[in-house]
Amino acid sequence: MKCTPAGCQQSPIMPSTHTSLLFHLVFATKNREPIILSEWKDRFHEYLGGAVHGLGGVPLGVGGVADHVHLLVSLKPTHCLSDFMRELKKSSTSWVRESFKQPQFQWQEGYAAFSVSASSRDSARGYIANQEAHHRQNTFREELIAFLQKSGIDYDDRYLD
Fold first, then answer.
1. Which CATH number fits domain 19-151: 3.40.1010.10, 3.40.50.150, 3.30.70.1290, 3.40.1670.10?
2. Distance in angstroms (rounded) separating the CA atoms of residues 26 and 101
3. How far apart (Å, rounded) are the C-alpha atoms in residues 40 and 145?
4. What pLDDT is recorded for position 123?
5. What pLDDT, on a 0 to 100 scale, did the predictor assign at position 63?
6. Residue 143 has what pLDDT?
7. Which residue from 161, 154, 72 is spatially nearest to 109, judged by alpha carbons?
């Protein structure tokens, strides 16, 4: 209701949906094999960004090292995260196998997804862009545990490798 000295009026219903659904996604190669080779890693990251776009999302950052990738993506409320991840991993697996003659390439089964506030977008983007430097000091396992703990997510050590 909107009220003025002349009286109150019913305000119009919001005509559309407005969301900010940002996710920091992390997923690793099967058995964390270091098979994302430096000679094609940049092209691969570009492909992942294009695949996110093709699935109706907005890629805001893509980075990673030889055994895992990080993406910052904006998704629509109609996206189902598990379906989105299945299709992203499926298409990227096919692309690597065909483009770089890597028939053994595959992702491990799971993934990690963390919500990111709009105010933390630039920080997450910077973190993703600096993966090479970050992993000179921390292992993937250490990194993942820190994310899980910071997010208050219970985990079983058996499923972190």
1. 3.30.70.1290
2. 24
3. 28
4. 97
5. 98
6. 94
7. 161
Mean pLDDT by 10 residues, the chain (161 residues): 61 76 97 96 98 98 98 97 98 97 95 97 97 92 94 90 76
Asked whether 25 and 64 are in contact (CB, 8 A), the reply is no
Packed helices 81-99 and 38-54: angle between N→C axes, nearest 10 degrees:
140
Q: What SS3 state is found at 14?
A: coil
Cβ atoms 51, 62 nearer than 8 A = no
In which element (H, E) is residue 23 found? strand 22-28
Extents of the domains making up the chain: 19-151
First to last CA, the chain: 55
What value does the CA radius of gyration of the chain take, rounded to a whole number of Å? Answer: 19
User: Residue 154 has what pLDDT?
Assistant: 94
What amino acid is encoded at 92 in this protein?
Answer: S
Q: Quick one: tokens of 58?
A: 């907005």
Contacts of 43 (CB under 8 A, 6+ apart): 99
- Alpha-carbon distance 1 to 24, whole Å? 38
